[in-house]
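Sat 14:20. Reprocessing the chain from the morning session after the first attempt stalled halfway. Input below, unchanged.
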Amino acid sequence: MKKILSLGHWKQTFQLIFKIITSPTVALWEKGLFIIPVFIYWIAPDFMPFLPVDDIAFTMIVAEWFASRMAKKYNITR
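Finished this time. Tokens:
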């Protein structure tokens, strides 16, 4: 739990996401797995009434999932 709450952990996570998004080896549709849902939720959270999650919390949850999945699949290190 301490790890998830630390700023250092989130700094590394978003640095890893930047590496993944700018990497030419990662397929464009897989980059969209992070960008599109986050963008839609930030633009239109009121259209999803059954997801009572804050924009930042949603972004952090999806970021953690995306970073761990893509790092394992493409062997990208933090």
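The longest helix spans residues 55-74.
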